[in-house]
Design a protein that fits this description.
Blueprint lengths: L1 E5 L4 H12 L3 E6 L2 H8 L11 H12 L4 E4 L5 H11 L3 E4 L6 H4 L3 H25 L4 E5 L16 E6 L2 E6 L7 H20 L2 E7 L1 E3 L25 H10 L13 E6 H13 L7 E6 L2 E4 H14 L27 H4 L8 H13 L2 H5 L35
Parallel strand pairs: 1-2, 1-4, 2-3, 4-5, 5-8, 8-11, 9-10
Antiparallel strand pairs: 6-7, 10-12
The structure holds nicotinamide-adenine-dinucleotide (NAD) and sulfoquinovose-uridine-C1,5'-diphosphate.
The site of nicotinamide-adenine-dinucleotide (NAD) has 28 residues, from helix 1, strand 2, helix 2, helix 6 and strand 9.
């Protein structure tokens, strides 16, 4: 199948290009290299060294024996998007090309509006390009589990049956996102749902949990094919940050009370799930939602898992809670469904400790790169609009003393 990956230079995009090539798909991609600029703005760098795109493209062709169709450009530019669709004629589009960071979107009005315009307009351009150029194609769009927030009831996959004043309907489950970034994903989901309805497009909206991991097997031993892995406060996600902290001997940092619960999945599982969605498209006009994660964990449980594996590898790892820069519940109910992908054949890895061993070994090789900018590990971007480095907490507060209503 001809698959266009938007955001192909990013954490998930570069891995998916290789996973799809290994399965015999023809891959194309676009990127504006924004992620590289954003991480530099945070004063950081990827823990794994990242080759420039021309080098990545050469390595890709050497490994997979065929070139990757690539165009550098901005998805918010309609003429660019339309021309890419006309030239590549994709049968499926995997849309990663958005700003993925909650903290980055909370910095100030300029970052908030940038993230929302970038994410909403890019998706609208893709929907119009599908309508005008490839109306039969399938859009696999990355939403996020964070669209739902943390309600007091179970979370279905996108829709739920509701009875109200004696009548029933199947409606979108309420979204209660926790950052301007997460709201941008809600707006994207609503726009895609509407485009499927009016134009008969088909789409799978993936509510993905937090991804962790440095590699997939398909990358082999060629460092030019490695994924980026960030650890700064904006672009580093929880487990990836904890592993980076462990290799340089810094404490692992659950925020606040540390019982925030989220869905997590390893990079290899994300690739498996996305490929299952691509290879099993919905019907024309169908807007399908999958919740994509392997298991839910609270962040303190995760820190303890990373600590256990790191200590087995001879590291001397401690856990030290940090003042929470976010406004979020720090202890809450969390029970999301995730059946759709299992029904398509998803086989969860269920082996976080093995994955952590691989990550810690990969990161150990590059510890000097983490050490060089380790100040970025302590967050300063706060949800209340101020910017001030969080302090370590010596005694973790009791439940009745913390927990803001998001
Ligand atoms: P990433 O930042 O590494 O990848 C996104 C890529 O898109 C970057 O290379 C960036 O340069 C590019 N991009 C952004 N805006 C663009 C534009 N206007 N034009 C062209 N290119 C543009 O992020 P990621 O972690 O790979 O995430 C990919 C997608 O998956 C995002 O949409 C994110 O919201 C979603 N997601 C990620 C996770 C996770 O844990 N990594 C979890 C759930 C959902
Ligand atoms: N957290 C800590 N300590 C840290 C880092 C994070 O306790 O050092 C906590 C956060 O407060 C939060 C949770 O861990 O409660 C997850 O934070 P994160 O930074 O790992 O993830 P998040 O900001 O939610 O965003 C990431 C990706 C985003 C994706 C989302 C999926 O950056 O693109 O949409 O995960 S989800 O979390 O399901 O919404």
């Amino acid at each position: 199948m001809k698959v266009l990956v938007t955001g192909i230079d990013g954490y998930l995009g570069w891995a998916l290009a290789q996973y799809l090539a290994a399965k015999g798909h023809e891959v194309g991609g676009v990127d504006a290299y924004f992620r590289r600029t954003w991480v530099a703005e945070m004063g950081s760098q990827s823990a794994t060294p990242i080759a420039d795109m021309p080098v990545r493209l050469r390595a890709f062709e050497e490994r997979w024996g065929k070139p990757l169709f690539f165009k550098a450009g901005d998805l918010t530019n309609w003429a660019f998007v339309k021309s890419v669709f006309e030239e590549f004629q994709p049968e499926a589009i995997v849309h990663f090309g958005e700003c993925p960071s909650a903290p980055f979107s909370m910095i100030d009005v300029h970052h908030t509006t940038f993230v929302q315009v970038n994410n909403v307009v890019g998706t609208l351009n893709i929907l119009y390009a599908m309508r005008d150029v490839v109306p039969e194609a399938h859009l696999v769009k990355l939403g996020t589990m964070g669209e739902y927030g943390t309600p007091q009831i179970d979370i279905p996959e996108g829709f739920f049956e509701i009875e109200y004043r004696g009548r029933t309907d199947r409606l979108p489950f309420p979204r209660q996102a926790g950052s301007w970034y997460h709201w941008s994903k809600v707006h994207g989901s609503n726009n895609i749902m509407f485009a499927c309805k009016i134009w008969g497009l088909r789409s799978t909206d993936i509510m993905q949990g937090v991804v962790y991991g440095t590699r997939i097997d398909e990358m082999g031993d060629d460092d030019r094919l490695l994924s980026r892995l960030d650890f700064d406060e904006s672009f580093g996600t929880a487990i990836n940050r904890f592993c980076c902290q462990a290799v340089i001997g810094e404490p692992l940092t659950p925020f606040g009370r540390g019982h925030q619960r989220r869905g997590f999945l390893p990079l290899r599982d994300s690739m498996q799930c996305l490929t299952l969605a691509i290879e099993n498209p919905p019907s024309p006009g169908e807007y399908r939602v999958f919740n994509q994660f392997e298991e839910t964990y609270d962040v303190t449980e995760l820190a303890q898992k990373v600590q256990k594996v790191a200590n087995e590898l001879g590291m001397n790892t401690t856990i030290h809670h940090l003042e929470n820069p976010r406004i979020e519940l720090e202890e809450h109910y969390y029970q999301p469904d995730h059946q759709g992908l299992l029904d398509l054949g998803y086989q969860p890895t269920h082996d976080m400790e093995s994955e952590l061993r691989i990550m810690l070994a990969d990161l150990e090789r590059h510890r000097a790169r983490i050490e060089a900018v380790k100040d970025v590990l302590i967050p300063a971007i706060r949800w209340d609009g101020s910017r001030r480095k969080s302090q370590f907490i010596d005694s973790v507060p009791q439940p009745d003393l913390v927990g803001h209503s998001a």
